[in-house]
């Protein structure tokens, strides 16, 4: 399975810490994946659609176990995406209005609660359950071997803002952006995506993501070291070739005997060791020279060669 599938499979099996956690999860799943219809005073019915069989089973299980609601399930296959779609219909039943109010989807005035219902936001374990359900309903995480990207999509601006604030309080720098008909909560940091899964209790997913992050960090560090080494080698070779060209100019013009013993020694060592660094040339001198001293000889060689070139061009 893909990384995203493994995460979803782990999260769907996480049990809440209290009885209210199941209601928090069911509330979020209906809020994100469900549509509520009203066909008369108090005559509500609900349709819930999901692309994931394990999420569909979780929803049906909660509806039956907590509220003893009757459900009908149908399956459709998307020709465009070649995926199975599961539709859960909850027909009108006498107590369904009370269920929607108990879940925190409707308030006492039968209006939709736009944010997280107060009974869930007051409890950390219920908030974790709510976040897990939002992820199950609308979450996406990119393959971390390629890039770090996490997102969840909700239709309510109030809910999106509140969830973003909750995630930020957990130390997760979540950001919010408006899409055509929804709001996207997203995270781009691999460390903070790992933090999200840790916070909601997806321990194995968090561990797997951390291992991938560490591997990528080590690989990037190795690449930086190799690139720096190659850059230094290229600079060293360029400097060596430039010095050899200066030496050729001096020798062709018969100016070698006019140089100081120090420059003659430098030229001799450079010709004998064309691939050596300046530091290595300095160590071969008698007595050995410091980096500053050998750099001075290199600059002096360049000055002499440039002066000869200028005189030749006159």
Provide keyphrases for this structure.
314 residues, 4-stranded antiparallel β-sheet, 12 helices, 8 strands, 58% helix, DNA binding, cell cycle
Report a brief summary of the structure.
The protein is an alpha+beta fold and 314 residues long. It has twelve helices and eight strands.
Order of helices and strands: HHEEHEEHHHEEHEEHHHHH
Q: Into which percentage range does the β-strand content fall?
A: 5-15%
Mean pLDDT: 90
Number of strands: 8
Instruction: Name the structural class.
Output: alpha+beta
Rg, Cα atoms, Å = 35 Å
Spatial separation of the terminal alpha carbons: 75 Å
Biggest sheet architecture: 4 strands, antiparallel
Strand order of the largest sheet: 1-2-4-3
Helix content: 55-70%
Count of separate DSSP helical elements: 12
Domain WhiA LAGLIDADG-like: 128-214
InterPro entries: Homing_endonucl (IPR027434), Sporu_reg_WhiA_N_dom (IPR018478), Sporulation_regulator_WhiA (IPR003802), Sporulation_regulator_WhiA_C (IPR023054), WhiA_LAGLIDADG_dom (IPR039518)
Domain Sporulation regulator WhiA C-terminal: 223-305
Keywords: Cell cycle, Cell division, DNA-binding
Description:
Belongs to the WhiA family. This protein is an alpha+beta fold and 314 residues long. Helix content is 58%, strand content 14%. The protein has a four-stranded antiparallel β-sheet. Strands 5-6-8-7 form a four-stranded antiparallel β-sheet. Strand 5 (139-141) and strand 6 (150-154) form a beta hairpin. The longest helix is centred in the C-terminal third of the chain and has 50 residues, at 203-252. The radius of gyration is 35 Å and the shape is rod-shaped. It starts with a helix and ends with a helix. The relative contact order is 0.09.
